[in-house]
Amino acid sequence: MRALLLLVLATLGHAAPAPTSSYLFARADKDATSIILAAAPASSSCSGGDFPEECRTAQQAMPFLTKAFADYKIYSVPEIAAVLSLIAFESDDFKFNINHYPAPGRPGQGTRNMQMPNFNLQYTLSVSPDAVKKITTATSTEGLSDAVLNSIRDIVTTDQFTWASGAWFLVNHCASVRPAIQKGDEAGFEAYMDCIGTAVTDDRLQKWKAAMTAFGLSV
After folding, report:
1. What is the distance of C-alpha 197 from the center of its chain?
2. Of 15, 138, 161, 182, which one is least surrounded by beta carbons within 10 A?
């Protein structure tokens, strides 16, 4: 099994803790981008998209993704591959940052892993509580207007936060299934999908296999 790591960029000025997984091996920037591109092939370009302001290429996403995995101390490559596959699937290879379908889309749903509004509120309270307080003092989305839900979502759909939402969710809501995901098999991926509240479809499975293969992991 080939051991790879999405590199935490020194240029970000971010000192990552020492990796604990035996999988980890530092790679050059271009290799990290290539891994992401292999998992999300359509992210090579943003030309021709319906929502160009939301689209990002693999190269643009790379520094934010690598920082996210380091910030949330996710060092197991099968976990990184699983989260990356979810982000790639939900955002259609980084073309979307908010939910648009069926039009006009579900209010408050967004970030690169398309979190539901209640999770976006939790996430926003975690990463930018002062910004939330300017919008609402609520700790639940129950009864909040569509406009408020969208304003909360807007806080965490910036590049600073949107790429880390998948890592945040894994750590804060899927801790119990992380050992299964770390095994790198289909059962672990199924456990992950169950945790996020969806079923394993052929499309999701193919996306996961593409991400695993991008890291040189067998499936």
Report:
1. 15
2. 15
